[in-house]
Design a protein that fits this description.
Distance between the termini: 61 Å
Shape: globular
Number of domains: 1
Strand content: 15-25%
CATH class: Alpha Beta
Order of helices and strands: EHEHEEEHEE
Oligomer: single chain
Strand order of the largest sheet: 1-3-2-4-5
Largest sheet: 5 strands, mixed
Number of strands: 7
CATH topology: Glutaredoxin
Length: about 150
């Protein structure tokens, strides 16, 4: 006899990071749904492999991209080691790095990025697909000041 009931799918995941140490949000298998599938935020997610030379070359560009958008409310620039963490379909790595844009309201239809991995091109990709206003919110010292990006 086969027991009935809820069967939980085991998700391959690194430990949940206590805090991101930079402008790029670190996602692991256990936080994927909470961060990437958050239907109130647009998310750009890079699925990478630590040993991948193309991923290593992209790292400073991706970090600069995250810095560029760090003050935009409702937009997350994230990355996940796809060799150590599971991601749900349709967020499967095709190659390394694989980059998806997950817009608000269309989380199960992410847009795949296949362009040049330059800051200019990645920034334009985010701008072209963002559903959130691209308004930079200034720090507390300039509270109430909003600047169009």
């Amino acid at each position: 006899m086969i027991p009935t009931g809820d069967v939980k799918h085991k998700v391959k995941s690194q430990s949940i990071p206590k805090k991101s140490s930079g402008p790029v949000t670190v996602v692991v298998g256990k936080t994927f749904d909470k961060i990437v599938l958050d239907n109130y935020k647009d998310v750009l997610i890079e699925l990478y492999a630590p040993q991948c030379i193309h991923c290593k070359q992209l790292e400073p560009v991706y970090r600069d991209l995250a810095k560029r958008f760090k003050d935009v409310e409702g937009l997350v620039i994230a990355k996940m080691d796809a060799t150590e963490n599971d991601s749900p379909d349709p967020y499967l790595p095709r190659e390394y790095p694989t980059i998806y844009f997950a817009p608000v309201g269309k989380k199960m239809s992410p847009v795949s990025y296949d362009g040049v991995r330059s800051l200019k091109d990645l920034e334009q990709f985010v701008r072209d697909h963002a559903t959130v206003p691209q308004i930079r919110v200034k720090k507390a010292s300039q509270a109430g000041v909003r600047e169009e990006l």
